[in-house]
Amino acid sequence: MYIYLHMPFCLSHCIYCDFYVALKATIDRRRAYLDALKQEITHCLSGQENEPIETVYFGGGTPALFSSPEIAEILEHLRLYGVFSPDAEITLEANPEGMTSPPQDYLKVGINRISVGVQSLQPNELKRLSRIHSRDQVYRFIDELKTAGFKNISIDLMYGVPEQTMKTWEDTLHQVISLDVPHISMYGLKVEAGTGLAKLIEKGRMNLPIDDTTVEMYFLGVSLLESQGVEPYEISNLAKPGFESRHNLSYWDNEPFWGFGVSAHGYVDNQRYENPRDLEAYLENPGLRAAIYPCSEQEKLENAFIFGL
Fold first, then answer.
1. pLDDT digits over 141-162, tens only?
2. Cys-Cys crosslink for 239: which of 108, 221, 243, 294, Cβ 3.0 to 4.6 Å?
3. What distance in Å separates the CA atoms of residue 183 and residue 229, rounded to the nearest whole number?
4. pTM of structure
């Protein structure tokens, strides 16, 4: 069983982000959200055959705004409906500005993989992306994670961002290599309609690199990271041997997975579904689906080809 949990709270809303986020991560709001998540999990998994839980992915949003006891509460609730595999991969997304609990406390409750939203190590690019962390915070945070005992650390990077050049991208890559983490995700910036970034680009206040440059950035990233033993294993993700994200691979292998939380998507019983992109609506009725899409045999075959390629 593969499980994704959307934890929507953030300290700020980045101008490029099209994910569903909420900005008021008060104790009461987090409490209400945890209760709703547990209700949805119970609604979906009670009565199901108890399958081994292979991966759990806390995505967001910024899941590390939830304390380690809060994260432990969700993991304990999942244990009511499935046994965790001995080598289960349990990922928590975090930002370099820090976590609500000390890193070692998340390790103690079962988190064994941290995915860090770095995006860039250039101060000007971070500012244009409305990221609120600094380059120094990235270095300190990665060091804190390693000191706490985390071995499986991933860093998210973004290329094709406003005003980025081959020189600044290459400098970011060399800095990331110096951080010596076993997994790197490289995402080409996609400008989503309605985001703050889209509006700035429409007004001519920000410019993106041309497509050819963006393609060169991707291949430069692959080349530099490969030279350090960080190998590509799917389009946007590279890892040292043995550190490939099993949760990411479950999507590419077209495995069924549960998605819990506001705006989450899932794929079970030959149906894809999505939850409402509205926190209040989710809190009122955690089991409500915004849409359900049955998959025909032809669609399943097409998906096998698409994801396989």
1. 999 999 999 999 999 999 999 9
2. 243
3. 10
4. 0.95
